[in-house]
Amino acid sequence: MGRKIRLTESQFRRMISKIVKESKHQYDEEIIEDEDFGDDEMSEKEAVQKLAEYIKSEVLPELSPREISKIKNKVQQAKGEMTESLYEEEESDDLPSRRSKRGEKLLMRGGLSMAATGAVLSLGEFMGYSEFEMTRMLHELNSMAGLDEYTGPLTVGMVFAGLALALKGLDMKMRREER
Q1: Angstrom distances, CA of residue 59 to CA of 63, 67, 79, 108, 179
Q2: Cys-Cys with 104: which of 23, 87, 89, 173 at CB 3.0–4.6 Å?
Q3: pLDDT at residue 24 above 70?
Q4: Which residues of 78-108 are buried (b: 16+ CB within 10 A; e: fewer)?
Q5: Residue 116: CB partners within 8 Å, gap ≥ 6?
Q6: DSSP 3-state assignment of 13?
Q7: Distance in angstroms (rounded) separating the CA atoms of residues 155 and 115
Q8: How many Å apart are CA 87 and CA 82, to the nearest integer?
């Protein structure tokens, strides 16, 4: 049949890492050989032009005049919204404003995520958790974390703390927009 080869764990790891490095090196060489630098690159203007040609030749002939007019209206609306948003960004383009916006979003999204996580984890602690596979899995997850009898207060605390963070972010946003 064949010879049996016995390897220690360290020998096995060295062998695998050597195979991976050789494969990566070979793969990188194949990619370099296959690439034609500069031939397939096109400017943004050329890409837009090609896309416009494709839409004009392939998409528009299959649309009804009503659908074409709807698309034109949507494009005009989008242009108007883009120019409005550009003006708004220029007005509030300073660094502190952008930082505060980012901080507000982080507080709101992070707080809501934390509240949702706490709510989901608390599902594993309700009576009858063992009846469903999902709630049993959540209960086991809480047990693996070593929360034991503190699971209930901790998950409820997560929900309230998350909601407090989200409300703080919303409060900061409202105060900044009032100015």
Answers
A1: 7, 11, 21, 41, 47
A2: 173
A3: yes
A4: eeeeeeeeeeeeeeeeeeeeeebeeebeebb
A5: 162
A6: helix
A7: 9
A8: 9
Q: With H, G, I as helix, E, B as strand and everything else as coil, classify residue 156.
A: helix
The pair of three-digit structure tokens given for residue 130, joined into one six-digit string: 């063992």
CB-side exposure of 6: number of CA atoms within 13 Å? 0
Render pLDDT for 89-116 as a digit per residue (tens, 0 to 9): 555 557 777 788 888 888 999 999 999 8
147 burial class (0-12, 13-18, 19+ CB within 10 angstroms)?
Answer: middle
Threshold 0.90, pTM exceeds = no
